[in-house]
Structures are given as structure tokens and as C-alpha cells.
């Protein structure tokens, strides 16, 4: 047990990593839990590992519908073990729920998460990327990821309130963005940035008092951080391109469409 001043999620991970003695390091969010039926099997598999990161299936558990959806990682088209850069990230967004890292690798990478902000799980899996070489696929679905609970960071009402947290995380990670990463590592890296940018800019269209000037200012703020990254992101966002090209005339309509698409209500 570590007794420390509350510095948010990131500070908890930093303190835990500092004191960790195990060969592997895994996160468990406060909203989530582990499937104890699979815990012993997971640990047996992990003890037999000698890789940088172990990847395992997990469950997405909806708090409202009580539905449990398995995420098998089959879209990675992965061999049982191999080089991380050979994985196919075209059709899946790999998250911390599936990843168990070698502790020494995290320390070698100098992993350090921001304090007092949400969304630092993206920092946790992106910062060590250039140090990851090998992976192994495990079979036990240990992690149970809770969704559908009001007040979670993945709830867009929270995203609207915590847009500055997303900007902080993006600004922390931007200096690490490297288009020269080998193999598919670059694709994995881009998927993490795309997820952060998507959440941030979706939040600009959702509030009832959403203002075109706020979207324009955010575009002006984010573009200089990494113009090439910005151009790649903009290719995915017809709505932002349309708002910019019409100088905000289409913004009210785009807000209505985005709220409907995301089933957003305040």
C-alpha cells in the first residue's frame, strides 16, 4: 500500500511504477475490475513470458445493459508471439486494457504521466512505444472494462468538461511523435493521437452553447503543434473542414448532426 497525496490518476501510476518490484506491470482503472476466474490462468501465462509486452483479450461490460462484449484482438492478425512492429493496427485501436508491460521497459522509457488530468492512459501506452520490440498473445480475458456509467472520462459530457485535459495530454505526447518508427509502430502511434484529437474536437460540437469561434481558436492552437499530424487528422474530419471552409456558416448544422450521431444529451 502506497500512502501519498492525491495527484490524480497519473500520479498514482508514477508512484506505483517507482515502487513496483514485479517483472511485469499492469494498470487497473478504478471503474474496472479483473475477472478472478481467469486470474490464475493469466498469471501462469505471464510467468512463462519473456517479452516486452503481453497482449490479452478483455471484456467490455456495459453498466446499463449488463451486456459483456469480448474484445479478442483478432484484428491484429497476430502470431502467438513476434515483433510488435509487425502487428496489424489497421482495424483495431489497441488500449491499455489489453496490455501488460515489462516493468524495466517502462522505466527505461522514462514513463511519467501528467498529474491532475484525465486521459493519461494514452500517455502510458504511447510513451514506451519506441522501446517495445517483442510481444506475446495471451488467451485469458483478465480485464473487465466498464462502460455506460455516468461520469466516466469516456462519457462525452465529461469530455466537454475536460477538454483542457485532452489538450494537456496531446501537448505532452506531441514531442514524441515520430513518423520514422519502424513497421506498424507508426500506425499504432497515429491511432493514439487520432483518438485524442477525435475526442477533443467532437467535444467542440456537442454543447448547446457551442460556438464557432471556439472551434476556430482550437484549430489555430492545435495545428502548429505538429502540422503534418494536423493535416492527417483533418483528412478524417469532413465536419471540421466544412466548418473552416464556410467560415462557420455550417457550424450550427454540424453541431446538430454530431449530437445526433453520438446520441449526446446534456
Quick synopsis:
The protein is of the alpha+beta class. The chain has helices at residues 8-19, 36-47, 103-108, 121-126, 156-161, 163-173, 185-205, 212-222, 227-235, 238-245, 251-261, and strands spanning 24-25, 33-34, 53-55, 58-62, 68-71, 81-83, 99-102, 134-137, 143-147. It contains eleven helices and nine strands.
**Describe the biggest sheet?**
5 strands, mixed
The SSE order reads HEEHEEEEEHHEEHHHHHHH
Anisotropy-based shape: globular
How are the strands of the biggest sheet laid out side by side?
Answer: 1-7-3-8-6
State the CATH class of the largest domain: Alpha Beta
* Distance separating the two termini: 39 Å
Low-confidence stretches are none
CATH topology call of the largest domain: Spore Coat Polysaccharide Biosynthesis Protein SpsA, Chain A
With helices defined by DSSP (H or I, 4 residues minimum), what is the helix count?
A: 11
Report what the structure shows.
The chain contains 11 helices and 9 strands. The protein has 266 residues and is of the alpha+beta class. It has 2 domains: 8-147, Spore Coat Polysaccharide Biosynthesis Protein SpsA, Chain A; 168-261, no CATH class. Helix 6 (163-173) runs antiparallel to helix 7 (185-205). The chain is globular and about 60 Å long. The model has no long low-confidence stretch (mean pLDDT 92).
Give the helix/strand layout:
Layout lengths: L7 H12 L4 E2 L7 E2 L1 H12 L5 E3 L2 E5 L5 E4 L9 E3 L15 E4 H6 L12 H6 L7 E4 L5 E5 L8 H6 L1 H11 L11 H21 L6 H11 L4 H9 L2 H8 L5 H11 L5
Parallel strand pairs: 3-8, 4-9
Antiparallel strand pairs: 1-7, 2-9, 3-7, 4-5, 6-8
Helix pairs in contact: 6-7
Amino acid at each position: 500500500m502506497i500512502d501519498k497525496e492525491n495527484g490524480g490518476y497519473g500520479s498514482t501510476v508514477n508512484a506505483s511504477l517507482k515502487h513496483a518490484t514485479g517483472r511485469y506491470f499492469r494498470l487497473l482503472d478504478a471503474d474496472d475490475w479483473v475477472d478472478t476466474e481467469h486470474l490464475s490462468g493469466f498469471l501462469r501465462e505471464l510467468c512463462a513470458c519473456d517479452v516486452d509486452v503481453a497482449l490479452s483479450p478483455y471484456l467490455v461490460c456495459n453498466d446499463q445493459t449488463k451486456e459483456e462484449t469480448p474484445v479478442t484482438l483478432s484484428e491484429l492478425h497476430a502470431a502467438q508471439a513476434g515483433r510488435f512492429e509487425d502487428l496489424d493496427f489497421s482495424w483495431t485501436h489497441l488500449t491499455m486494457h489489453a496490455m501488460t508491460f515489462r516493468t524495466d521497459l517502462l522505466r527505461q522509457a522514462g514513463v511519467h504521466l501528467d498529474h491532475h488530468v484525465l486521459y493519461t492512459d494514452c500517455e502510458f501506452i504511447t510513451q514506451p512505444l519506441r522501446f517495445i520490440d517483442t510481444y506475446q498473445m495471451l488467451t485469458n480475458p483478465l480485464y473487465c472494462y466498464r462502460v455506460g456509467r455516468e461520469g466516466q472520462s469516456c462519457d462525452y459530457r465529461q469530455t466537454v468538461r475536460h477538454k483542457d485535459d485532452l489538450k494537456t495530454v496531446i501537448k505532452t505526447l506531441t514531442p514524441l511523435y515520430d513518423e520514422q518508427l519502424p513497421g506498424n509502430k507508426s500506425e499504432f502511434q497515429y491511432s493514439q493521437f487520432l483518438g485524442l484529437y477525435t475526442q477533443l474536437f467532437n467535444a467542440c460540437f456537442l454543447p448547446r452553447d457551442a460556438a464557432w469561434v471556439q472551434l476556430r481558436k482550437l484549430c489555430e492552437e492545435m495545428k502548429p503543434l505538429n502540422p503534418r499530424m494536423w493535416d492527417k487528422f483533418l483528412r478524417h474530419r469532413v465536419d471540421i473542414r466544412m466548418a473552416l471552409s464556410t467560415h462557420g456558416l455550417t457550424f450550427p448544422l454540424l453541431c446538430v448532426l454530431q449530437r445526433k450521431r453520438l446520441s449526446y444529451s446534456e
